Amino acid sequence: MKPRHEQPGIIPYGITFSCFMLRQESFDFAWQFHEEYELALITKGTGTRYVGTTVAPYHPGDLLLLGPDLPHTFTSAADPDRPAEAAVIQFHQDFLGAGFFDLPQFYEIARLLAGASHGLLFSPAPRVARDILTALPQLDSAAAQTVRLLEVLHVLSRCRDALPITGPGYTPAPDASVRERIDKVCSHLEDVHTRHVELAEIAALVHMSPTSFSRFFSHAMGRTLTDYINQLRIDTACRLLTNSNSPVTEIAARSGFVNLSNFNRRFRELVGTSPREYRNAHLRS
């Protein structure tokens, strides 16, 4: 599967950006990238977000600002009681005219957009931004939509707790052939990470030797294959801890870990707490 050079949402006549509510029974894994900036506000459902080199859970209230050509996708399990829904805005740097954000009064917004090259996470998003983004697609005035989008960007530019999403090893917009191979590998790992995975098996997907593939993957993703698989497994464990009553030992096995002590160690490294503490914290919330 190639990463989709995603077509932005249909832009109505008389406006220079797209805004829409994306509602599906579930989000399926498929890398996407496009020339536009994207604001994606999760309004319903939980799942996993993949942005650049990172893998992490997402929850309602999360708002992501993604820069141009930043590969991303969201996945979730089909659940009739918890459909997947997001408010999505896509716009070019010059959607308000060439040089608009170079004006001195928009310095903070220009800095915000520059920081989006590796993705920015607002979790939870400021209430005013959430209210505007969920109402934006229903506004019947293009001028009102434009003013409100500019207001959202202003609010986010003043927010000091935005978190960068991708790691320092990520290089935006990799070569198309690299992107195609990485997509094939990541799509396969999404399906098989809870079982034993051999390096040779993954290398064979892209017709490379294990040694060459290890170097290729580390260079393209900014992390080793083992680290990436562990991240997938820990994310699966997080979902099981919050959505089931299964014992931690069973969750470790279902997530792909054959050794409980290794599971506990990796979980603490990546999440910052133990599996039981994580579960208890989410039960309290």
Automatic annotation (TrEMBL):
SMART domains, A to Z: HTH_ARAC
SUPFAM superfamilies attached to this UniProt entry: Homeodomain-like, Regulatory protein AraC
InterPro entries (UniProt xref): AraC-bd, Homeodomain-like_sf, HTH-like, HTH_AraC, HTH_AraC-typ_CS, RmlC-like_jellyroll, Tscrpt_reg_AraC-type_HTH
Keyword terms, alphabetized: DNA-binding, Transcription, Transcription regulation
HTH araC/xylS-type domain residues: 183-281
Transmembrane regions listed in the UniProt entry: none
GO molecular function, one term: sequence-specific DNA binding
Domain of life assignment: Bacteria
Presence of the UniProt keyword S-adenosyl-L-methionine in the record: no
Full protein name: AraC-like DNA-binding protein
Naturally occurring in which organism (per UniProt): Kribbella solani
